[in-house]
Amino acid sequence: MKTAENFTKDFQNIFHTTKAPRIFFAPGRINLIGEHTDYNGAHVFPAAISYGTYCLGTKREDQKLRFYSMNFPEKGMIECDLSDLSFNEKHDWANYPKGIFLYLIENGFHISSGADIFYYGNIPNGAGLSSSASIELATGVLVEGLYAEKINRMELIKLGQKVENHYIGVNSGIMDQFAVGMGKENHAMLLNCDTLEYKYAPIHLSNHVILIINTNKARKLADSKYNERHAECEAALRDLQKKLRINSLGELTKKEFEEYKHLITNSTIRKRAKHVVYENERTLKAFDQLQQGNLEAFSKLLNDSHISLRDDYEVTGPELDTIAETAWELDGVLGARMVGGGFGGCAIAIIEKDKAEAAKEQINAVYQEKFGIKATFYTATIGDGAKEITKGVVI
Ligand code: GAF
């Protein structure tokens, strides 16, 4: 078990200092439903989880930034100067915090001197649980704390997305940074990605839990087909705009889509747009069902979401399909679907507490037989968004 004191010692050993760092945490996230809808101005329904990134730091006297991650010890200490925060391939994972520093400074945030910053994350990287947004927001709240200047939370969230879009080169939407920045214990968030209006919904699962199932097939959004899907949605929108005055696919109802889908000439692109429009309606319905405590109807929508991501959006792949399809057949499972960008990463399942252990074994029996690797499991605890941690046990 790691405590604030353990982390402090690790920090002091790595940076050869006796100074006491401040400690911050940003969660990862799951997404209950609303996948690949955020960059289409539609709804998402994510929640922050208790796994995430711990970030410790002290200010320096000079202009140096030094980054160290316990998750990537082989990368060693990564150093740069505040006067050159440009993207550097060699800086690997540290480009995420560098991007945050750069854009904060460009936005007028006053950073007078450098810092030593240490990271430890307990969310698997590249598993669709937003490890990168977690690093971005953890860095943001650390900068806010160390340099004693309030950063508007929504601005920080947008800045994290800008790091992904313009610094790293992934055309992702705002869902991950939003969930990591705005999370609330035991609540999911329904976000309209066009207006950025949001509502919290308590997650009451009675005798069920949310099981996170990691395929252990890592993928990076940067080299997945993520940007290709984004471009396909833009192409669909352009076709529809020949007749319709809309700014995003998220504005369309299912009925309108069915009426105008013929305007999208390419059948693959039509399927992509169909997923977005139908998924948006599913997300709104799922929010209502969860509010009404109808867990069965809610979970059924999760299954439909997976099927749409598999058949129309084509972002699941054999590993995620095997996990979801196996889970659907198991005793005690109400629903299961992939989460995040897809092509690997994690799925979630809503499952009766008492049946979870048996389900894990049954899923792995099938999964291991087929792919020669084991899936790993986590029980999701829904926690708060990015914040400072003061004392006591942190992990
Ligand atoms: C990734 C992206 F970062 C999000 O913006 C979102 O598009 C998601 O994939 C798919 O719903 O996590």
TrEMBL record:
Pathway: Carbohydrate metabolism; galactose metabolism. SUPFAM superfamilies: GHMP Kinase, C-terminal domain, Ribosomal protein S5 domain 2-like. ATP binds at S69, G126, A127, G128, L129, S130, S131, S132. The record marks R29 as: Transition state stabilizer. Keywords: ATP-binding, Carbohydrate metabolism, Cytoplasm, Galactose metabolism, Kinase, Magnesium, Metal-binding, Nucleotide-binding, Transferase. InterPro entries: Galactokinase (IPR000705), Galactokinase_bac (IPR022963), Galactokinase_CS (IPR019741), GalKase_N (IPR019539), GHMP_kinase_C_dom (IPR013750), GHMP_kinase_C_sf (IPR036554), GHMP_kinase_N_dom (IPR006204), GHMP_knse_ATP-bd_CS (IPR006203). One of its GO terms (cellular component) is cytosol. It is found in: Cytoplasm. Catalyzes the transfer of the gamma-phosphate of ATP to D-galactose to form alpha-D-galactose-1-phosphate (Gal-1-P). Residues 95-184 form the GHMP kinase N-terminal domain. It comes from the Bacteria. Residues 10-57 form the Galactokinase N-terminal domain. GO terms for biological process: galactose metabolic process. It catalyses: alpha-D-galactose + ATP = alpha-D-galactose 1-phosphate + ADP + H(+). Transmembrane segments: none annotated. The active site is at D176 (proton acceptor). Mg(2+) binds at S132, E164. GO terms for molecular function: ATP binding; galactokinase activity; magnesium ion binding. Substrate binds at E35, H36, T37, D38, Y226. Belongs to the GHMP kinase family. GalK subfamily. Its EC number is 2.7.1.6. Residues 287-367 form the GHMP kinase C-terminal domain. This is Galactokinase.
